[in-house]
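Case study.
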Amino acid sequence: MPKRDLVDYTAQNPFDRFPDGRPKVPDDLIQRARDLSAEEIWAVLQAKGYNNQYADGFQVLHPGETMVGRAFTVQFMPSRSDVDDVAQQKAKAKGMPRLMNQTAIDMLQPGDVLVVDLFGKKVNGTIVGDNLFYYTMQATHSGGLVVDGAIRDLNGISEIDMPAYFRSVDPTPIGNVMLTGINVPIRIGEVTVMPGDLVVGDREGVYFIPPQFVQEVLDKADETHVHDEWTKKKFAEGKYKSSEIYGSPSDPKLQQEYQEYLKRRLEEIRKQRSSK
Amino acid sequence: MPKRDLVDYTAQNPFDRFPDGRPKVPDDLIQRARDLSAEEIWAVLQAKGYNNQYADGFQVLHPGETMVGRAFTVQFMPSRSDVDDVAQQKAKAKGMPRLMNQTAIDMLQPGDVLVVDLFGKKVNGTIVGDNLFYYTMQATHSGGLVVDGAIRDLNGISEIDMPAYFRSVDPTPIGNVMLTGINVPIRIGEVTVMPGDLVVGDREGVYFIPPQFVQEVLDKADETHVHDEWTKKKFAEGKYKSSEIYGSPSDPKLQQEYQEYLKRRLEEIRKQRSSK
Amino acid sequence: MPKRDLVDYTAQNPFDRFPDGRPKVPDDLIQRARDLSAEEIWAVLQAKGYNNQYADGFQVLHPGETMVGRAFTVQFMPSRSDVDDVAQQKAKAKGMPRLMNQTAIDMLQPGDVLVVDLFGKKVNGTIVGDNLFYYTMQATHSGGLVVDGAIRDLNGISEIDMPAYFRSVDPTPIGNVMLTGINVPIRIGEVTVMPGDLVVGDREGVYFIPPQFVQEVLDKADETHVHDEWTKKKFAEGKYKSSEIYGSPSDPKLQQEYQEYLKRRLEEIRKQRSSK
Amino acid sequence: MPKRDLVDYTAQNPFDRFPDGRPKVPDDLIQRARDLSAEEIWAVLQAKGYNNQYADGFQVLHPGETMVGRAFTVQFMPSRSDVDDVAQQKAKAKGMPRLMNQTAIDMLQPGDVLVVDLFGKKVNGTIVGDNLFYYTMQATHSGGLVVDGAIRDLNGISEIDMPAYFRSVDPTPIGNVMLTGINVPIRIGEVTVMPGDLVVGDREGVYFIPPQFVQEVLDKADETHVHDEWTKKKFAEGKYKSSEIYGSPSDPKLQQEYQEYLKRRLEEIRKQRSSK
Amino acid sequence: MPKRDLVDYTAQNPFDRFPDGRPKVPDDLIQRARDLSAEEIWAVLQAKGYNNQYADGFQVLHPGETMVGRAFTVQFMPSRSDVDDVAQQKAKAKGMPRLMNQTAIDMLQPGDVLVVDLFGKKVNGTIVGDNLFYYTMQATHSGGLVVDGAIRDLNGISEIDMPAYFRSVDPTPIGNVMLTGINVPIRIGEVTVMPGDLVVGDREGVYFIPPQFVQEVLDKADETHVHDEWTKKKFAEGKYKSSEIYGSPSDPKLQQEYQEYLKRRLEEIRKQRSSK
Amino acid sequence: MPKRDLVDYTAQNPFDRFPDGRPKVPDDLIQRARDLSAEEIWAVLQAKGYNNQYADGFQVLHPGETMVGRAFTVQFMPSRSDVDDVAQQKAKAKGMPRLMNQTAIDMLQPGDVLVVDLFGKKVNGTIVGDNLFYYTMQATHSGGLVVDGAIRDLNGISEIDMPAYFRSVDPTPIGNVMLTGINVPIRIGEVTVMPGDLVVGDREGVYFIPPQFVQEVLDKADETHVHDEWTKKKFAEGKYKSSEIYGSPSDPKLQQEYQEYLKRRLEEIRKQRSSK
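After joint prediction, the assembly is written out as follows.
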């Protein structure tokens, strides 16, 4: 995708960009995003009318670990040599190496999550084995991998500390496909993923957050964290029915108690954050 | 369900009942049931002609943990406002709160397992998130949850120590459904679940035991435990073919040895139990 | 379901009722409904916020034929004899015959569609074979059958002229289930079906229209029929792009032409209808 | 797709092109292609190493009818308004109408088959209802429709004489998607479809033949037709085992008989064809 | 399978045998079996404790047509050349042709149904295309085909008048498999099929009747035909509830009427049959 | 299977055999095979044209553990008593015990993996519960279990230290099947398994290696281990793009470095191995 188009289609990005135009959500927001839950993201995005940003149905490599990073997108399509030959000539003419999975992998940056459309392919739909998974871990600083397709060498990969979401596992290498795009819009399940989206994966699935909503998602999440903390504290007291406390306290005195708790805790959180 | 109906339809219950008529399997039997396996329950129920008391195909929250408790049943159906409006008016007329998931959850008792028919719904089919899951854990003393539907906030829920069986996970809240029954007969998979059934869940699936069979299931299980203990002991000796020992020993001397072992161990088990 | 409850829960019904309280959409509206398409029904119901009235995924017996009639609902659940015995005693005490599929079938009225919840059961989930299908055809005057379950003897049934929608076919008879309700609210797929709903089935699936919306659905459909007639007429002229004509004509002169056509044709349709 | 790119990526096209660069397989070859079977196409393409040109798993509207035409491709992706807004502005800047399904449909030419990637979407994944299906039939001269998605108003559509292949049917209109490409490479199942591919659909599935192979496929098919004609004639004589005749005759005399038959019939076919 | 084994394992066969030992259900019984329904077969076989003789889930080539014939079984397994090479050498040593699908097809007899285990294979799992399907039709006198696998060239095959049941259709030829048995016991779905079983296929699925039960199935079916004839006649009178007539008449006078009808009609049927 | 046939069909076996003719891959090679990955096996077998030796889609009992052993195969088919009675008589005549799962289990040897075709059966398709699983563990010295079918008593089994691969879990015991072969060729998924194949299972699935390829697989795997070791070491240095190192180093100096590393490490590995 030409840089100009990438910048155009991500015009609402409020942050810096990589040299190729891809939005660059700042590192400190990526760190804060490690505490997000799928529900907190859902709440903000659905309010904005963004109902297609969540994909699930993956096998999750390390279920206890959260994945956070900037989307680096790659698209494959079923191979047909008349089209692939032209693409390879065009790449060569631009001085690029032969188009294949490593072409994209060699462009990864720290903080990236590699997001790959392999259209659910299993046999010969394996984006990486343990060697390239290891390389990706090094290059992205354990950013992560989402593939609508497969991986190979699961035994080796499961010993490497990087989050990964994949549809299946197969012993065959990648084949019978052609690389048709790097950092272009791609589809993963029911999501249109844009390069530079903030990718957040938990045990349930993967959210792709447009950069323009990252700050708001994080700020709302602070409130939700405090809300849940207070709610569970009250439940632990064993004096209330759930409906007296949750979603919001019905008794005005409890409501006030909550509001004060919320205010105090948010201040503490912000203080603690800025002191880092 | 009117108390009278509930009592009628569970007429074979040999135990006490809750004020609303629901059978109350005693606490000590619930404790003993923690050692049950699915096979031990199957053996007694199939002999009685009860072949529809087992449901599987769930995601299991804590696979190593056994779930045991009394069924507290809840039924939802797809929403249509003409019907739901009438139900809400009827509830209001009886002084009940607005009918929703929390209405049922606020009625849970220690030792209950919340069993919910959400007809396999995923999107907007989430009976609880982590706050209400935490409340349920408190209210039931870690009884458990079985939902033919979804939960949300799996990351949060997986840190809470209560067994749970669910079909799927989704970030959306519950919606587009109406509550149509609390402690009524419901269907979970191929099982008709009655309020007060003893619910036993292991790694494989969930059994719903009618109260009238609980004592017999437990007593037979004592024998099976001893049988399996002895069988494995003999196998560990390495002197026998499996068919010489299992299902029952073919050699009369081994048969006698087993009968004596069984008798002795059952006595020990009962002694140990009564001394608690 | 007691008559009182049935009347309460269908309070918005604007038509007569059967002696048991079930709404009775008039015969002439049933006749008009034979020309409805799924899309026309969808348009009115979604505007009312009724998004759960459509079920599909059935095998359709006679794909070219439309099914229209009043819902007569029947519910089965997995058998457990402790519950079934009580239900049978209660039925006997009321002077009813043994509860089974024929109990319900013998209550069918002309114009009814038999709608059965057999929870998707295939083996032993067959509501009728060719004899009872023939009886149902006679009793309902070819009303129809919708079963979330199976039928048996498809060869024989396919020669009988009544619409039917079913999930599967099996040679076994019905068994291992218990009848738990006649003319109660039941769930078919993602629909809560109420007794007396107008059932409309086409090649795509089955709509369940609450009686209070039947008149409006039919009136709007008249307009849609004229709209589609005019649209295709204009397309057949070959002079227009689709977007000049459909959804509505962009050119004011075409708009006027359409409005006049609509008015004239609606008058013709109504005249023709009243002259019958 | 800019015309230049479309011409580049279809550089092997031996035929004329449409003004936008799309290859234009000649009308007479389209006519001849009506007699092709999936196996005849498979034989030529696999020999060329093109193993990804066949898609199946569709519902077929008129199973007895063959579909033949030039691929007119359309791509949709899940909607996200930040991206769609930019695309709409860009379209507007070029003087194009609002991007939606009708935008593409209004560009169809006689002999086209509309090939649409709606990523298998059912609810709100309906490319046309009966009005636009009728328009497409008029515009393409009954070319055809292939959609990896749904259609609506099947009752109406099934009365219209144009071949169609679709995944499902739903009463909802298209929605929650954005148009992302017209006459771009798209993926349908395991096929990368290029604009201008010759689309051939039978009872089994749909083949997408690159223009450069159309002539050879047709010529080989002539031979296969004669081969099958002769093979069945010999089988009908009842004197031979299948292996004496098929794949090719083992007896030299039969081999000679076949070669003479083949030569004679091919001449007849070509004569007959040229005399038209 | 050596003839001796085949005779041993079908020892209960009451009829003649083919030279290779395969049971030969007589032609006149095959003719009578054309009127059987799946339910009639089910009734006899389940009473004998044979619950695994029915397979479904097939695509049916000509749904209105009944298939009846003697099972000629063929087994394929996934290819591995070390095993296949030995099998080919053994075949050669016995003077047999190279083992492949045609080897079996060339052995078919009039009245046979070709029953093939291709373990559900689709790609390269196609037992026949239209040429060999035509040959099979000739050789078996339109006996039929059941394949747990695929066929190719459906367009051509659907014009040939022989019943066929298959799992899928694919353009590829058979490959990557090895022939491992002709007229050996094979598994089709949940059925162990023996060579010489009477195969009966209708719209629902396929029954495999052991020869020793054929006579009884046919005789019971005569009664069932009369029973259904009488039942529908009574229903058509419109005077009875279904439960007064079906399963059997409750009123002694109706019972007597039925018994007389049954006796008379059975005599007529037998007379008519013997006069042929 | 007669010994003679078993020896014939495994003629390429380079190792000793068990008394019944089954190939016996030596114990030291079994030990070395514990370090194999699926990819290493795939590389050798596909080069030999053996593309059908891998099965997946199992539930894996202990995902972190590798399974290695010699295939001991068992085949079941759906029960039909006419066939089973003959088989039992034949077994009895040979002095064998009643044919059932334990008949085969009692024949297991140290180092065996029990491989069972139960055709995917779940209910009554359970080859072992915890007692027989324990026995199998003792008899095979924790060899392993692969069943295209089910197990029962998962809770008990998961505490026993032996690898196992199964399709499902059910509380019912094995039933409604008949044992039709011990140490015969069987099909597991898309694999023809021969008795004596080396079975290797990891997190992904199970490979069945013909004995004649075991030595070569192991030797190539040594190289691959060194290759991956070196590749990751270079990646860890962080100085190279993945394509400079992997699949093989592009720079001649790196190539030389690698070759020297490979030579040295292979020597070390062999020395270490021989010193054991």
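Observations recorded in class. The first helix of chain B runs from residue 3 to 9. Chain B has ten helices and eleven strands. We will return to this complex in the next lecture.
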